[in-house]
Amino acid sequence: MKRHLLLLFVSIPLLLFNVACSSDDEGTTNPDEVLEAEIRMNVSYGEHPSQVYDLYLPEGRTQENTKVIVLVHGGGWTSGDKSDMIEIVNFLQANHPDYAVANINYVLAEISVPAFPNQFLDLGNVLSQLTEQQNELQIQPQFGLIGTSAGAHISLMYDSVYDQTDQVKFVADIVGPSDFTDPFYANNPNFEIALQVLTDTNAYPQGSNLPEVLSPVYQISESTSPTILFYGNLDPIVPISNGFALENALNTNGINYSFTVYDGGHGDDWSTTDIQDLQSKLEEFMLTHLSID
């Protein structure tokens, strides 16, 4: 997802937040105390420098009512940064201040550092750490995932394959790759090579059909979370056929979903009206499936 799309998420002035340093200490909470808002930057969840996230904790949060939106940036699994999602952070803080927000980084793929399944596991490690710290943070470990491009692919895969305890309550897929068997990818010999480089083949059974194993459309099941999809009909990076394939898989398995197609490409050229429509639909879906009591 390019920055032009994300900039349009800023619609009203930001709320003021107090900044606090991250801490690994377990805290205790006075039940009569109204907790102040906090921002904890670059909270570590692993040994690699990229295994960090920014955590935005709302004022007045409680373990009973404060649920968490997790943002997963794009960049083709090899680039990008959580800073690319800051305008979505701002949008959520300004319009939905009762939610906690975790804006995550994950280890980017290199020749000797495969993306799959490591990036799925990185997302899982963030959710596990937030769950372990729920008392100290005063959050409820129920999550909504918002991913853009490669981040949407990571989010979709995590939800359908790795979320064994149903902590993820919805996934927002903004121009995410969903079907690597699509002729758009399958007929490109360079992509086949790239998929081999991106994958730790030792992590999958010998002889695995990697385009299927790593495609969310083949992982959808009755346990998949409600999913909201946004695609462009002229996207040169993720074909619109990926959106239709994912819609079909969700529908076949009886999953609650919403699917919207906009005129344009990979999000950077969508109109202001379309972005406003995306915001409205995303808000409604979030409030429906990750409601604040």
Contiguous low-pLDDT stretches (5 residues minimum) are 6-27
Secondary-structure element series: HEEEHEHHEHEHHHEHEH
Shape label? globular
Main pleated-sheet profile = 8 strands, mixed
The rounded distance between the terminal residues' Cα atoms is: 32 Å
Give the tally of structural domains.
Answer: 1
CATH topology: Rossmann fold
CATH architecture assignment:
3-Layer(aba) Sandwich
The gyration radius over C-alpha positions equals: 18 Å
Largest sheet, spatial ordering of strands: 1-2-4-3-5-6-7-8
Structural class: alpha/beta
Number of strands: 8
Specify the CATH class.
Alpha Beta
Strand content: 15-25%
Helix percentage range: 25-40%
| Count of helical regions | 10
Can you tell me the CATH superfamily? Alpha/Beta hydrolase fold, catalytic domain
Provide the residue-averaged pLDDT. Answer: 91
Organism: Planktosalinus lacus
Domain BD-FAE-like: 54-250
GO molecular function, one term: hydrolase activity
Signal peptide: 1-22
Structure notes:
The chain is α/β, with parallel strands linked by helices. The protein has one domain (3-289): 3-Layer(aba) Sandwich (Rossmann fold). It is 33% helix and 16% strand. The chain contains ten helices and eight strands. It has helices at 3-7, 86-95, 118-132, 134-137, 150-162, 183-186, 189-198, 210-213, 240-252, 272-289, and strands spanning 38-44, 52-57, 68-72, 100-104, 143-148, 168-174, 227-232, 257-262. Strands 1-2-4-3-5-6-7-8 form an eight-stranded mixed beta sheet, sandwiched between helices. Helix 5 links the parallel strand 5 (143-148) and strand 6 (168-174). Helix 3 (118-132) packs across helix 5 (150-162). The longest helix is centred in the C-terminal third of the chain and has 18 residues, at 272-289. The radius of gyration is 18 Å and the shape is globular. The protein starts with a helix and ends with a helix. GO terms for molecular function: hydrolase activity. InterPro entries: AB_hydrolase_fold (IPR029058), BD-FAE-like_dom (IPR049492), GDXG_lipolytic_enzyme (IPR050300).
